[in-house]
Amino acid sequence: MSLIVDRMPELGVTRLSRWIFNCYVLDGDDGPVVVDPGSRRISLDVTTLLGKRAAGLRAVVATHGHTDHVGGAPSLAAMTGADVHVAPATIEYTRGARPPSVPSSCLGFGPVLLGQPFDGAVLRSSAADALRSGYGTPLGWRWTGPDPVGDLTDDAPVPGASEWIVVDAPGHTPDSVALWHAGTRTLLAGDAIATARGRALFAPITFDKQHAPATSARLRGLPAEHLLPGHGLPLHTPAW
Ligand SMILES: [Zn+2]
User: Fold this and answer.
1) What residues flank ion ligand 1 with Cβ within 5 A?
2) Could you tell me whether strands 105-106 and 157-158 are parallel, antiparallel, or unpaired per DSSP bridges?
3) 52 C-alpha to ligand 1 centroid (Å)
4) I need a surface site. Which of 114, 140, 151, 203 has the fewest CB within 10 A?
């Protein structure tokens, strides 16, 4: 077992992580909200962590449609009855648009892979999940379960956690969003920013080269003090 449970009560956030897979549980308006359950393995971890509170899960939110962020979303939704929320651009993939499968650049991601303990179980789970949910392989978009809701639009409150707002963040992929909590100055970045060796890596893997620079500039402009990356360890200094 190499599940890491990283409680950040001052932020109202708990990070569950296996290897490079970060999933975040937010203290929502009247129940928890789960962001980026990237494999069915992690979804089981979430329900174990929440116990009876899992029945009150308000929403499952994905920062983009890559399998390692949504692979566990349908199963978590089925276990709890919560809806899955994605960006409108992700919905286009459910309607037949072709998601990108080859990155245009891949800079410096190696240290991210080595930064946390390897977990073969979650890697095997993710490989199986890729056949069912999300995209990232030449198979294109896959999904099982009820259709996701495409309401993660720029500046909208996060469903079930209205102190967080959605920030459009195309660049890693065309359908990427980040989440911002102004009260605690916390940026949940999805894959727009990874971390390794205590540093933030903006756009470490880019499928949407056209939009990545503007997104990086926008995110750098936020007065963030806490960075919760899609991959890598959180950073908690204003200087990141
Ligand atoms: Zn991704």
Assistant:
1) 66, 191
2) unpaired
3) 31
4) 114
